[in-house]
Amino acid sequence: MSVSADPAPPTAAPMTSRAGGGRLAAVDALRLLAAAGVAAYHYLGTPTPHFWGTYDLTRTAPALHALSRYGWLGVEAFFLISGFAICMSCWGRTPAQFAVSRIARLFPLYWTVVLVIVVVAWIARLAGQRPGAPVDLRTTLGNLTMLPGPLGLRTTDGVAWTLWVEARFYLLMAVLLLIGLTYRRTIAFCLLWLTLAAIGRELHSSVLDEFLLTRYAGLFVAGMALYLMHRFGPNLLLWLLTGFAWCYTLTLLGDRVAAHAAPAARGGTPGWGICAAVLTVFLILLALSGPGPLGRLRWRVLAYAGALTYPFYLVHQSLGIPVVRGLLKAVPALGLVPAIALGLCFSLALSAALNHLVDRRAGAWLRRRLTSDIAVPGDPVGRRTPPPDPPVRQPSSRTGTVCQP
């Protein structure tokens, strides 16, 4: 659980890396689709009384429930897209510039949402209701670091565990940036990462699992390979890398399917084959959206939708679901599905407000200040530029930017 970024044999023909501008609107659309899947799973995908009490989704909305049971795959889709988008964000940047872009993008919205959740939980407690999130000061402070899991704390926002996965991926990319981000080094990095991740699985090492993200490494690597295709053009090596990463991913997907089998048991257990097919369709869509023909789309509405994905992802569960509960309690005749629709509308409206008031203003201010603070006069590190890309045959010239978490 997403959120703007910049991210052959010798021949006599001129060979350059792709350069240019323009947003990758299709990738933004995929991020919105992934967020919608996660929200559908949380709102409609489980028939247990965890959220809705006596309402039984297998009877209230059987068709919607049957589709939404697979919405958790949106998290896997986020990691796949993140491999593409973060590789794009890193290209042409120093480690310091990359760190500034991630901090300014992630933290202002995250801090705001955590504090709003805590305030809402305190109001619920004062009203004599059970708060939906931990509200003690120690837990709140730990969550503000975005590291509640490593600190042994409950997450204030239920989807925040995915941000810790993303943060570890950013650290791995920072190592690659320190070495120097080039076409060949990125391929070598991906191959080494997958190899070490497989060794970590074989050794049953919790330390390697934490550092190498062994469960999700294939998703990130597949996304990175697709970005290399987008930037430098497809070739056999990159397709083989993508295929290897995808075989690794689908093999380990069984663990995630098993983890989601119990809460969905009453409505039918999600099958590995269907989950693998759904995720593979998402891979194909990303391939069409980056290096493929959908990369030419330039719809501004999709770019805006991509900008709303990260705040929507943060608020839809911890703030949207309490709204639905309140509606069901205040107006029982409304019914579950209309109440859920209103809860989703509330989450989207709140996301738009957060994007305008926090991301565009506080995030932009923080980015300017941090950029100024790292540009210390006389510091050679601040002026270091990445090494140039190697010559790779290009059929055409195009890149873009994509909003990302």
Automatic annotation (TrEMBL):
- Keyword Transmembrane in record: yes
Instruction: List cellular component terms (GO).
Output: membrane
Residue segments, region Disordered? 376-405
InterPro entries per record: Acyl_transf_3_dom (IPR002656), Acyltransferase_3 (IPR050879)
In terms of Pfam families, this protein maps to:
Acyl_transf_3
Q: Which GO terms describe its biological process?
A: lipopolysaccharide biosynthetic process
- Domain Acyltransferase, which positions? 25-354
**Which keywords accompany this UniProt record?**
Acyltransferase, Membrane, Transferase, Transmembrane, Transmembrane helix
Q: GO molecular function: any one?
A: acyltransferase activity, transferring groups other than amino-acyl groups
Spans traversing the lipid bilayer: 70-91, 103-124, 158-179, 186-205, 211-229, 236-259, 271-289, 301-324, 336-358
Extract the PANTHER family matched here: ACETYLTRANSFERASE (PTHR23028), ACYL_TRANSF_3 DOMAIN-CONTAINING PROTEIN (PTHR23028:SF53)
Record protein name field: Acyltransferase
Name the species this protein comes from.
Streptomyces griseofuscus
